[in-house]
Design brief:
By secondary structure, this protein is of the alpha/beta class. The chain contains 13 helices and eleven strands. An eight-stranded parallel sheet has the order 7-6-5-4-3-2-1-10. A three-stranded antiparallel sheet has the order 8-9-11. Strand 4, helix 5 and strand 5 form a beta-alpha-beta unit. Helix 7 (201-208) runs parallel beside helix 8 (243-253). It is globular, with a radius of gyration of 20 Å. The chain starts with a strand and ends with a helix.
Length: 376
């Protein structure tokens, strides 16, 4: 296994560009870079540019992962670049992206079922609760797109890996894999996103481990708040996710799996919005009805997890939502945003050390041990 990072959350990625960002990844002692889509490597799919990135990653001994993007057709208008790269044909655009990725050896490709809109509070921030189309209709549309892309994936020897994104449940992803085919589909396991669907991270890990081919390693604060539960990204090991249990589960299922950190983006790269609270409306009957696969046992375990975490918050071991937000982003107007480049680097280093310690304790070899990281 190797420990790397998602390019969208790497500080100054846009400013530095792909090649210089690979240098930063190496300087940080990380093992690779996960580009959400191949267009993040080259917006035009320029063969020479892609080849240069591949060659540099190989020279530095880094893994290189990529993706195709949001494949929910109800979200296509929000990502016009996928249609543009296909000269107006979305499926052709995805096909070209798959072929370009495969040409540089990226055969595990990230896909996502929707967009999270943080400017809206509660369930309406999530495409699962759109009012113009039902979630079941969106799932059917996603399945149809996957069936169109499946032959392309098989021809190019790739897997289209659905992220456990904010909208979709792990149950639904497994169902899609069973319908479309395990030979061309897999999972990008985001270790924290399932919390927004009421799923216990360990339960989810066990459920999808056989299909996990890429990851987003992320932790979060989850605690009681008006309207349900607050969700807030935290450094790995300082949130609610039990990585001590989850990492060995993933390693047993896929010993060659890359672990890609997805940390909080620097405010210099992505300014904090004035209403940053993410609310999980877990007590709302509408929310609960939208999760028919979530059984009573797992929901009880999830709520017990939240209660145990809240005790750590109450003891002062873990800062509450307001304290953490104020210390990193300013409060209440968010005019003083202190979480810049250097703070993001500290976030990355601390998160990496937690995962490395777990791997060391479990005899899981990583390409970038703690000693090298501290030297860097």
């Amino acid at each position: 296994m190797r420990l790397g990072i998602d390019s969208q959350k790497l500080p100054e990625f846009v400013k530095r560009g792909p090649l210089a960002s690979l240098d930063l990844v190496k300087e940080l002692g990380l093992g690779g870079l996960f580009f959400p889509t191949v267009l993040d490597m080259s917006p035009t799919l320029d063969k020479a540019a892609l080849r240069d990135i591949r060659e540099k990653a190989d020279e530095l001994g880094l893994y290189l992962e990529s993706g195709v993007g949001k494949i929910n057709p109800y979200c296509s208008a929000e990502a016009p670049e996928f249609r543009a790269i296909g000269d107006g044909d979305v499926i052709l655009g995805f096909t070209r992206m798959i072929e370009a990725s495969a040409s540089i050896g990226c055969r595990e490709l990230w896909i996502s079922p929707g967009n999270f809109k943080s400017e809206y509070r509660g369930r309406l921030a999530n495409d699962r609760f759109r009012t113009d189309v039902t979630w079941n209709e969106q799932l059917l549309a996603i399945e149809k797109v996957l069936r169109k892309l499946a032959p392309v994936a098989r021809t190019n020897g790739v897997h289209l890996n659905m992220e456990t994104h904010d909208e979709i449940t792990s149950f639904e992803i497994v169902q899609l894999i069973e319908k479309v085919g395990e030979d061309c589909m897999g999972v990008v396991f985001d270790t924290a996103n399932g919390l927004q669907r009421g799923e216990h991270p360990v339960y989810a890990a066990k459920r999808i481990a056989p299909y996990v081919r890429q990851t987003h390693i992320k932790d979060a604060y989850v605690g009681r708040a008006p309207g349900g539960l607050d969700f807030q990204t935290r450094p790995v090991g300082r949130g609610i996710v039990d990585f001590t249990t989850i990492i060995p589960i993933l390693a047993a299922a896929n010993p060659d799996l890359n672990l890609s950190l997805e940390v909080a983006a620097s405010v210099e790269d992505k300014p904090r919005k004035a209403n940053p609270r993410q609310c999980i409306e877990i007590d709302d009957p509408t929310w609960r009805a939208a999760h028919p696969d979530l059984d009573a046992e797992e929901l009880e375990a999830y709520l017990s997890l939240v209660s145990a975490f809240e005790k750590r918050v109450a003891s002062g071991e873990i800062p509450d939502w307001e304290t953490y937000e104020a210390s990193n982003y300013g409060h209440p107007t968010y005019e003083k945003q202190t979480y810049g480049f250097h703070a993001a680097i500290i976030f990355i280093r601390n998160s990496a050390k937690h995962i490395e310690a777990i791997c060391a304790d479990n005899g899981i070899d990583l390409s970038a041990p703690v000693a090298k990281r501290e030297a860097a």
